[in-house]
Amino acid sequence: xxxxxxxxxxxxxxxxxxxxxxxxxxxxxxxxxxxxxxxxxxxxxxxxxxxxxxxxxxxxxxxxxxxxxxxxxxxxxxxxxxxxxxxxxxxxxxxxxxxxxxxxxxxxxxxxxxxxxxxxxxxxxxxxxxxxxxxxxxxxxxxxxxxxxxxxxxxxxxxxxxxxxxxxxxxxxxxxxxxxxxxxxxxxxxxxxxxxxxxxxxxxxxxxxxxxxxxxxxxxxxxxxxxxxxxxxxxxxxxxxxxxxxxxxxxxxxxxxxxxxxxxxxxxxxxxxxxxxxxxxxxxxxxxxxxxxxxxxxxxxxxxxxxxxxxxxxxxxxxxxxxxxxxxxxxxxxxxxxxxxxxxxxxxxxxxxxxxxxxxxxxxxxxxxxxxxxxxxxxxxxxxxxxxxxxxxxxxxxxxxxxxxxxxxxxxxxxxxxxxxxxxxxx
Length: 427
Prior knowledge:
It is a single chain. This protein is mostly beta strands. Helix content is 13%, strand content 46%. The strands form five sheets. It has an eight-stranded antiparallel barrel with strand order 10-11-12-13-14-15-16-17. It starts with a helix and ends with a strand.
């Protein structure tokens, strides 16, 4: 029925194409003019999301990118480039007020850019931290979008505090009711993480992706499942039929209020997007980094789920998140341990057996790449997504943008939860 209806509309579409083109242009101008009026130069904005990073001591802005519903901080490559230009990087925390220097629409690049400044004094005459946020949209979207569709992503990052286009009130403003502070965020653990007893390196706890664990302690092996609640890691040990509560602190796990188990890091990590980029963490607390064709060195420390590098050549510190057997740079760029197989439940199909290029059976423009490091890349309906996957028997679980779904594996075909068939292509 859809094809027949589309066929009947072809003649109408051809006759109206000139009108639609003009209407689209008028619509583009309309929302762009409205947006410019809403966000003039000098508007005071409050930052709502983490990921905005500013620079000082140079004339180059760091730029964060809002895409697919999420704000991405500048990547590791951009950070290294900026520091090589003698820029000083400053994360700008949510709640900080900044001045809008320019709002600009780039039709050809499918983005709307906000250049902002955080004043270092009472005004920006004494210096400012400058930053940029690029709001990226699908190709051609800006030509047909409505104002509300552009405002939505912007309002997830910025809120307007005051605007030059809004006259100052002439009457006293009623006091605003005090908003209670949000509850404190409880510490947690990341599935896939490995913890090692600081007093005995042979004792280690592996938290698997499926909420099961394996424990080596005192020369014995234990298994079971785990959960997290109110800053406490709860283990149910099958062999003992016993539940154990373990405290979660910034430095790791605290057993019985005294024994510290630290998050473990591997000796070598490789950039999943470029295998030439790699970092080696040495036992003496030093590291060797190859990135973007350049060599760097320095020292590192692990605190909680963060790896902090001090890069000697740049005299800068870089914080990197540890997530299981991976390092996440600014929450976006993934570096993996080549020496560790994907963390799978006992008896599970290995991720390597599913790796390959899959194409949607009814439309080859939609495809799915499953990589040996457990990461995935999906192109569907003109949009791209990244995530991870794990396999267990005839089932594969996908995690994309924080959402988990499962699909059925049938030979070289994956049948997703909507019944769509994805066929692995021969190499």
